[in-house]
Amino acid sequence: MRLDTLSVTRSHGGTQHVVKHRSDATGTDMTFSVFVPPQADEGALCPVIWYLSGLTCTHANVTEKGEYRRACAELGLIFVAPDTSPRGPDVPDDPAYDFGQGAGFYLDATEEPFARDYRMDSYLSSELPAVIEHTFPADLSRQGVTGHSMGGHGALTLALREPDRYRSVSAFAPIVAPSQVPWGQKALSRYLGPDPSGWRRHDAVALIEDGARVPEILVDQGTSDDFLERELRPELLANACSEAGIPLTLRMQQGYDHSYYFISTFMADHLRWHAERLG
Amino acid sequence: MRLDTLSVTRSHGGTQHVVKHRSDATGTDMTFSVFVPPQADEGALCPVIWYLSGLTCTHANVTEKGEYRRACAELGLIFVAPDTSPRGPDVPDDPAYDFGQGAGFYLDATEEPFARDYRMDSYLSSELPAVIEHTFPADLSRQGVTGHSMGGHGALTLALREPDRYRSVSAFAPIVAPSQVPWGQKALSRYLGPDPSGWRRHDAVALIEDGARVPEILVDQGTSDDFLERELRPELLANACSEAGIPLTLRMQQGYDHSYYFISTFMADHLRWHAERLG
User: Which residue of B18, B74, B251, B265 is the best one to mutate when testing the A interface, meaning the one whose CB has the most A CBs within 10 A?
Assistant: First the structure.
């Protein structure tokens, strides 16, 4: 396991790492960031929060703009921010911002030409956790997952498929039902093929309809988010949770948009919520 | 007074504005950001913190990475981040990162070809405050100033020249004695001419030696800052303050570098410090 440490920077009493490594899952170099809180200096193994980013993002967006370090330092949380897709000149891409590189949708593609590289589900479910556990003082018995927009979709679907692994889940302005909205239909059909029955394990609402369960969910959603009605549609998640008996805290945040100005505002709330559940 | 509002975004309960306007002082378009805290919604006039950025920065660096909004929202502070120089194809520039556009050093240049546009002192001392007072719920009887690196130099020198205007002053890793360090010698000689006696009102240590006084100063400085020994030299400020009887709180922060990871860590401390002094 060879890792290239791109930077290690003191911040908020802990240490912000940016690391590049060769991924077996994607067959490409992948870059991620990890914040290690000061509690680790005293030898503690710390719970891990996975933050999955939205369309077009890399690890850098939340690392620079997410305002998570102060709360992670207070709460003793390791914060991991992976990239959103494989990248590189040999990785199939698309000129659109919402497909291809920067838009991996946290699944393993089955369709050509994407099947070889677009394996973010495998990357996040097994390869990267092993890297984190090997390299940082991480307690993988205490993992929570959150994310934004496409990354909110990733967080919800990963947690619904593996509720024993992710003991807490939240999301910022998530895509909750990709099978029912343009961003998702475009991505799922091209990564997974035209048959919507193959999309259901990558759709939070469909997973819940099919019996997947998590103990509870926290979602913040801005009311001035340009993507609210067409792409995000939190009411679909609210209905599914209601029918399934999953406690959903859905907070409609007045006047907030889809940007990191919104995410950073509620980041500390989410981290406290996870910390309470991860012990 | 014509202002172009480039964006208005809800964040941390307040509103982050980015504004462009034509500056009479510089003869160019200038862009700045202003965070207005929620207290303004109830009609309160709020104290103003000026944040002056370092070499190469625009308003955007601190606006994205500074992590000031939460504390400003709690404390009821307006936070203004100006650009670091005039900019544009007609503005004299230099290929170096530490001179010309992005490196205005918060002075009015007297040398050609810079004298026409490089008038950041006039811009910050009179033009921009009038814009802020006219446009935002700002109480200009309560202004504090802070900044980073070259902007720390700006904050210290503006406050030392106008202690009645800026009732509180702090800095992050400031250039404290530009006359004595390479960054400053290069900039001051080319903006102000070769005679160092003309540089003294743009040098915090020289201003103090020449009798300028402020009630007290807060400075944070990382011990792992690559520019510490060659460009920043906080001991020169410590000596000058000691001889002048100016209470200086100089905090050497173990392991911190010169980046926004450092600034954002101590931003809330500085804002609280200013708020206590601005009432």
Answer: B265
In angstroms, the first-to-last Cα distance of chain A is 30
pTM of the model: 0.96
The model's pLDDT over B243-266, given as tens digits with 9 standing for 90+, comes to: 999 999 999 999 999 999 999 999
CB contact under 8 A, A10 and B268: no
The residue annotated as part of the active site, out of A202, A258, A270, A274, is A258
Residues 59-88 of B with CB under 8 A from A: 64-65, 67, 69-70
CA B118 remoteness from chain centre:
15
Q: What percent of chain A has a predicted confidence (pLDDT) above 70?
A: 100
**For B247, what's the count of Cα atoms within 13 Å in the CB-facing half-sphere?**
3
Instruction: Judge whether B146 is closer than 8 Å to chain A, CB to CB.
Output: no
Cβ of residue B260 closer than 8 Å to a chain A Cβ? yes
**Residue B10 CB burial class (10 angstroms; 0-12, 13-18, ≥19):** buried
Instruction: For chain B, give every domain's residue range.
Output: 3-278
Looking at CATH, the fold of the domain delimited by B3-278 is given as Rossmann fold (3.40.50)
pLDDT single digits (tens) A210-232: 999 999 999 999 999 999 999 99
% residues pLDDT > 90 (chain A): 97
